[in-house]
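Hi all, long-time lurker, first post. I run a small reading group and we've been trying to get comfortable going from sequence to structure in the token notation. Rather than ask abstract questions, I figured I'd post a concrete chain and ask someone more experienced to write out its structure so we can walk through it together at our next meeting. Sequence below, copied exactly:
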Amino acid sequence: MTRTRTRTALALAAGLAAAGALTLGSVPATASPLPLAGSTTVSPAGHAFKATLSGKATLKAGSVTVTCSVSVSTGSVPAAPGNHNAAGAVSSPISPPTYSSCTSSIPGVTPTVTTSGAWSVSMQNGSPITATMTVPTGGLVVHTTGLATCTVTTAPSGPAAVAGTWTNGAPSSLTFTNATVPVTVTGGFGCPTSATSSTFNAVYKVTDTTDPAQQITVAP
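-- Answer (accepted) --
Happy to help. Here is the structure in token form:
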């Protein structure tokens, strides 16, 4: 009788242990929360700025590259307290960048770049400081004439975020390196109609036009 009870007790204990292990194993792991974005302050508050292309800007879609040597955009830092975000980026509206003195990688083809809509740029303090330029739907269109007549439309299905970096300096700079931009391409022979994205490269020098003695800076 004692031996039977002992076997029963051992079996029960084993069953409970197995049930406990099954229960613990079925509890889903809790994912660690994503870190919050750090604080960002863009200064001087309320000052106007001008972004001027340094060097050349390129937009490459498929085998075709359009290169422009002149580009300018203007905007202003939000007035206080809007120039500070305790947990994220600070955004500023900018004018649609103008592009001129443009050439194409295809001989005999002349490109024209037009921009429109509500553009913006946001800064997030960090290491590095990140910058995101938002292109509105269809906000930049490249049209070529000559041996190939093509139309390249950026952000065809909705606003597109173009990732870049910001560097404080005198003047500060905004850099886009192989940034991906969605596009659609239409046209005939010689047009990269299968391309669905392009790469954008440019460096802009950003100056304070309210007080040229000061610099536009990004800090915590």
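A couple of things your group might point at:
Confidence is low (pLDDT under 50) at residues 1-34.
The longest helix spans residues 2-26.
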